[in-house]
Amino acid sequence: MLAITTARWPEVLPMSNRFRTLQQRLDSLVAKDSLRSLKRWPEEWAPPTETPGSGLINFGSNDYLGLASQRLGENAQQARGAGASPLVCGYTEPHQRLSRMLAAWEQTEAAVLLPSGYAACSGALATLPQANDLILSDQLNHASLIDGCRLSAATKMIYPHGQTAIVEDRLIRHRAEFDRVWIVTEGVFGMDGKLAPLAKLCDLADAHDAIMIVDEAHGTGVLGEDGSGACSHCAVKSRVPIRIGTLSKAIGAQGGFVVGPRVVIDYLINFCRPLIFSTAAPPGVIATAIASVQTIQQEPDRRARVRSLSSRVRQHLGISECSTQESEIPIIPIILGSNEQTLWAAAQALAEGLFIPAIRPPTVPAGTSRLRISLSSAHAEIEIDRLLRFLERLPQAMISG
Ligand SMILES: Cc1ncc(COP(=O)(O)O)c(C=O)c1O
Q1: Shared domain check, 142 and 116
Q2: pLDDT of residue 395
């Protein structure tokens, strides 16, 4: 067995056949002795009788000057790099433990870590959809998803943001031309603080035998009863077979992950280039991520607090057009339109001791430059009061949310 196994899916997914090609390619690797799997350094490498404990002599790391291993000797907690790709000797006990935790949290079969969320998104998209497949990708998807699509051999169609009618039309017209169709969306759109229409997209995926991939970058840790993200929040977790996340936002560490059926994760381990050809995330940082996930699971009050702060700020600003599901998302854009106005407003904020980043094209579409407010459970009420007082003084026409 290759990847980390946890409890079975809560429901039997009707889509196991959709990954048959991936399984066939993995099987062909076995025949050539080319199949790769993650082995935890050093335990699974050391012959137990000859090299007890961690006495294995490492001729596989890229630690050419011994600086990483020296740090390990001095203080196991000290920051050091993993030294190599997870497929060489960079996959350590914390990596294995976090993969297991993420798979269990996400109620799926397996998980794999990558050095960043960018690598996880771009790598998964570049690797999973194949030449005879179609990718349907939301127009406002994050650059990491877009770049993965660009690298993929599949045909790509970009649908207007959130327009499920267009997705449906593309599926009706083109589904039969392709082996598989992948629907790719962010769960929470990071520049808008809005949810993707996940339930409707899942309905379309089910009706037309397509596969959902959701980037949970801004949902992980914040949304859902269990804090696992937008798919949990929208009750579609078991209908989205592949979810991608980052350890660098609510989890407060660094790195990325993909969770899904074991065959998908095994396929990534064997074919995903940012995973195979990049040094694993530092073990100490992964240990930090483990502690954060434990905190998120044990302290639901943190997400309750940031969600209530988000509702409070939205209410105060009179932003009412978002659904109740969305009112708790801690990203609040103040769309000002021009770069000039946005930079002016950001400078005013800074002068008052408030850092609110100005977001301009190409990060957002032309003419929609904005201040992007990110709230945190760590903000004190008094700090929120200051934010609101500042926003009140912005010309009213500017705050259209
Ligand atoms: C939606 C989305 N996906 C992926 C990423 C990439 O995550 P990371 O910063 O861990 O590379 C980001 C980061 O900005 C993001 O906003």
Answers
A1: yes
A2: 73
> Structure tokens of 159?
């649908």
Q: Structural domain of residue 345, as residue ranges?
A: 300-398
- What phi-psi label fits residue 118: left (phi over 0), alpha (psi between -120 and 50 degrees) or beta? alpha
Tell me the C-alpha to C-alpha distance, in Å, between residue 34 and each of 27, 91, 198, 271. 10, 19, 38, 11
CB 136 within 8 A of CB 167: yes
d(C-alpha 91, C-alpha 111), whole Å: 13
Give the mean model confidence (pLDDT) for residues 125-132: 97
Which of 113, 118, 161 to mutate to test ligand 1, by most ligand atoms within 8 A of the CB atom? 118
Instruction: Determine the distance separating the centroid of ligand 1 and the alpha carbon of 42, expressed in angstroms.
Output: 31
Cβ–ligand 1 distance for 121 under 6 Å, the answer yes
Is the CB of residue 152 below 6 angstroms from any atom belonging to ligand 1? no
Mean pLDDT estimate for the chain: 89
Q: Is 239 in the same domain as 306?
A: no
Task: Tell which atom from ligand 1 comes closest to the C-alpha of 246.
Answer: 10
Q: Which of 272, 296, 320 is the last residue of a domain?
A: 296
246: CA distance to ligand 1 center in Å?
Answer: 6
Please write down the long-range contacts of 391-396, taking CB distance under 8 Å and 24 or more positions apart: 391/316, 391/317, 391/334, 394/334, 394/345, 394/348
Q: How many domains does the chain have?
A: 2
Same domain, 269 and 379: no
Q: What separation in Å is there between the alpha carbon of 398 and the centre of ligand 1?
A: 28
Verify whether ligand 1 is closer than 6 Å to residue 248 (CB atom).
Answer: yes
pLDDT tens track for 253-264:
999 999 999 999
Name the strand (E) or helix (H) holding 335: strand 331-337
Whether 25 maps to a domain, the answer reads yes
Distance, in Å, from the CA atom of 214 to the CA atom of 258, rounded to the nearest integer, reads 10
Burial (Cβ within 10 Å: 0-12, 13-18, ≥19) of residue 371:
buried
351 alpha carbon – ligand 1 mean position (Å): 29
Please give the pLDDT value at position 123: 98
Q: Give me the mean pLDDT over the 98-105 stretch.
A: 98
Burial-class residue 118 by CB neighbours within 10 Å (0-12, 13-18, 19+): buried
The conformational region for residue 283 under phi > 0 = left, psi -120 to 50 = alpha, else beta, is alpha
**The two structure tokens encoding residue 395:** 């010309």
